[in-house]
Design goal:
single chain; alpha/beta; Gyrase A, domain 2; Rossmann fold; 3 domains; 5-stranded parallel sheet
Length: 502
C-alpha cells in the first residue's frame, strides 16, 4: 500500500502542478499505532511546486486520492501533513486473503537446529526480576524460532561452583546451625540466598575493621580472614574434599528445588540443564589443547592466556595461576559437550549486555581452535533491570525477588478483577487460575514490550497497570477474537476456525 500511495501521489502531483515527481520522492510515513490514521503523506515539498500553502496543497492531493483510490475512507490535513485512513473493508479483505491462503501458517520445509540458552542462575541465591527478564526473552525467542519451523532445544546452565557458591557455603558452615528449608519454613533457594547476603555483611565488617588499622580497602579485602577461607574452600572443592563436596551438594539441591517451583509458576521449562561443575574440567582440557597448539600462552605465574590484540581486543585469562577455572574455561567445555550431544547449527546465549565482551572472546577462541560450531555462536544481548535507586545487588539485598513479585502480581490481578466483577460463577480454583494468568500476563508483557537492548527501570512500589496497552488487554482481545471465530464457525461463515490457546 505504501508503494501504491507513492505511485499514485506522484502522478497526481505531476498532473496538478505540471512538475514531474518520481514515486521515490513522495514521503509516505506510517504513524504511531495509537494514531487514528493508517498513513501520512508529507506535503511540504509539493507546496513549493504548487506555490500554495502546505495545507491547501495537501487538501488538493487528498481530494484527488479519494477519487482515485476506492480503498480510502477519508483524509485529514494537519499543518501540511496529509493523514489517510483506509476503509475497514480493505483490511477485512487483506485478512481474509491471508487466512484463506493455503500457505497460511505453513512452516518452512527445512529448518535449522537451534539451541537457546537462558536463565543461567547462580546456585547461591533465588531468582529475581533480572532473571525473569532473561527467562521471558529466552523462552519467547525459543517459541518464535519453533513457530518459524526450526528444531529448538531449550537449555539452562547452572553456575553451581566457584567463589560465589563458596560464600553461601562458608556462611552456612559458620552460622547455619543445621538449619534446613523444612525447619525454617523457607524455600531452599531463599534460605541459601540469605547466607550469601550474611557472608557479604560479615565480610564488610572485617574489611572495615582492617581499614581502621590503616590499610587501603584493596589490601583490607586481601587480609580479611573470610576471603582467605573462601580461597581455601574453593581449592578444597576442586580437590574433591568430602566435607566440602557434601555441603555443596546439599545446598545446591535445596536451590534446585526452589528454582523448579518458580519455573512452574511462570510456565517455563527446559529440555536440558547443564551444570558448570560437570564441564569445567573439560574446559581445562581444551585450554591444554590450545597451549599445545600454541594458540594460548602461559605467564610466569602459571596462568594461561590468549592474545586477541590482533583481533581488536586484548589479552584474556583462560586459567588462573593456581589452576582454577574462570567463566570462559567453563563455557568452552560446555559448548563442546552441547555440540557432541545435539550438534546444533546455532547456539544462542541469552545473557545481559555486561557480558558482550565475554561472548566476543568465546566466539574468537572457538574459531581459533577450529571448533565446527564456532560461527554459530550468537549472543542475544539485553539490558539489565535497574531500580529507581540504582542497580539491583543481591549481596546488598537490593533485589526484587521473583517469587514475591509473582505473588504481588496475582494479588493485584485478583483486586482488579474483583472490582470489575463477572467472576461470580467461577469456582475458587478457577478464580485463582484466572488471577495468576492475568498477573503473569501483565508482568510478561510489561517486560517484553521494551526493546531487549534497553535497560529497564522497574519501580516495585508501583503496581503494573491493567489498562491500556498491557498484557491483560492483549489477553482480553485474544478472548474476543476467539469468540468471533467460534461464532463464525458455528454459523459456517467462511474463515471461521478454531482459536489456538497459549
Amino acid at each position: 500500500m505504501q508503494h501504491q500511495l507513492k505511485s499514485i501521489t506522484s502522478r497526481i502531483v505531476s498532473q496538478l502542478y505540471h512538475q514531474e515527481i518520481l514515486p521515490e520522492q513522495v514521503q509516505v510515513n506510517i504513524p504511531p499505532k495509537d494514531f487514528p490514521f493508517d498513513f501520512t503523506i508529507v506535503a511540504f515539498t509539493f507546496a513549493k511546486l504548487a506555490k500554495k500553502s502546505p495545507d491547501q496543497t495537501a487538501n488538493e492531493i487528498g481530494a484527488e486520492l479519494i477519487k482515485e483510490m476506492p480503498e480510502l475512507d477519508h483524509y485529514e490535513v494537519v499543518k501540511g501533513f496529509l493523514n489517510l485512513r483506509l476503509k475497514d473493508a480493505y483490511w477485512i479483505g487483506v485478512f481474509d486473503a491471508e487466512v484463506n491462503n493455503p500457505l497460511f501458517g505453513a512452516l518452512p520445509p527445512t529448518g535449522k537446529k537451534v539451541m537457546v540458552e537462558y536463565c543461567g542462575p547462580n546456585t547461591n541465591k533465588p531468582l529475581h526480576l533480572g532473571h525473569l527478564r532473561n527467562i521471558f526473552i529466552g523462552h519467547s525467542m525459543a517459541s518464535i524460532l519453533k513457530a518459524a519451523g526450526h528444531e529448538v532445544v531449550k537449555v539452562n546452565i547452572y553456575n553451581d561452583r566457584g567463589v560465589h557458591i563458596c560464600k553461601s557455603m562458608l556462611a552456612y558452615q559458620k552460622y547455619g546451625n543445621h538449619e534446613t528449608p523444612e525447619s525454617s519454613g523457607e524455600k531452599g533457594d531463599h534460605l541459601v540466598g540469605e547466607y550469601y547476603v550474611r557472608f557479604e555483611q560479615e565480610l564488610r565488617k572485617q574489611v572495615s575493621e582492617i581499614i581502621a588499622q590503616g590499610l587501603t580497602e584493596e589490601a583490607a579485602k586481601k587480609q580479611a580472614p573470610l576471603n582467605k577461607e573462601i580461597s581455601e574452600m574453593l581449592l578444597k572443592w576442586e580437590k574433591g574434599d568430602t566435607e566440602v563436596r557434601n555441603l555443596w551438594q546439599t545446598l545446591n539441591q535445596w536451590v534446585y528445588q526452589g528454582f523448579e517451583e518458580t519455573y512452574r509458576k511462570i510456565g517455563n521449562d527446559f529440555d536440558k540443564a547443564y551444570m558448570e561443575s560437570a564441564t569445567y574440567l573439560l574446559g581445562k582440557t581444551i585450554v591444554a589443547e590450545g597451549l599445545e597448539r600454541k594458540f594460548f600462552f602461559k605467564k610466569p605465574d602459571g596462568s594461561v592466556w590468549i592474545d586477541l590484540t590482533a583481533d581488536g581486543l586484548d589479552q584474556k585469562v583462560l586459567l588462573r595461576a593456581d589452576g582454577t577455572s574462570v567463566y570462559i574455561t567453563q563455557d568452552l567445555g560446555t559448548a563442546d559437550v552441547r555440540f557432541k550431544e545435539y550438534a546444533p547449527d546455532v547456539m544462542i546465549y541469552t545473557v545481559a549486555n555486561e557480558q558482550d565482551y565475554h561472548f566476543k572472546v568465546l566466539k574468537l577462541v572457538c574459531q581459533k581452535l577450529g571448533r565446527p560450531y564456532a560461527n554459530g555462536i550468537h549472543h542475544l544481548s539485553y539490558g539489565l533491570v535497574d531500580l529507581p535507586t540504582g542497580r539491583m545487588k543481591t549481596r546488598e539485598g537490593t533485589v526484587v525477588d521473583a517469587d514475591d513479585l509473582l505473588d504481588e502480581m496475582d494479588l493485584t490481578a485478583a483486586q482488579k478483577t474483583r472490582e470489575v466483577g463477572k467472576i461470580e460463577n467461577f469456582s475458587e480454583t478457577e478464580q485463582l487460575t484466572l488471577f495468576h494468568q492475568l498477573g503473569l500476563g501483565a508482568l510478561k508483557f510489561y517486560i517484553l514490550k521494551v526493546d531487549p537492548k534497553k535497560r529497564i527501570i522497574f519501580n516495585p512500589e508501583e503496581s503494573i497497570d491493567f489498562h491500556g496497552f498491557t498484557g491483560p488487554f492483549i489477553q482480553y482481545t485474544h478472548a474476543r477474537i476467539c469468540s468471533v471465530l467460534r461464532k463464525a464457525a458455528e454459523r459456517s461463515i467462511s474463515g471461521g476456525r478454531q482459536c489456538r490457546h497459549s
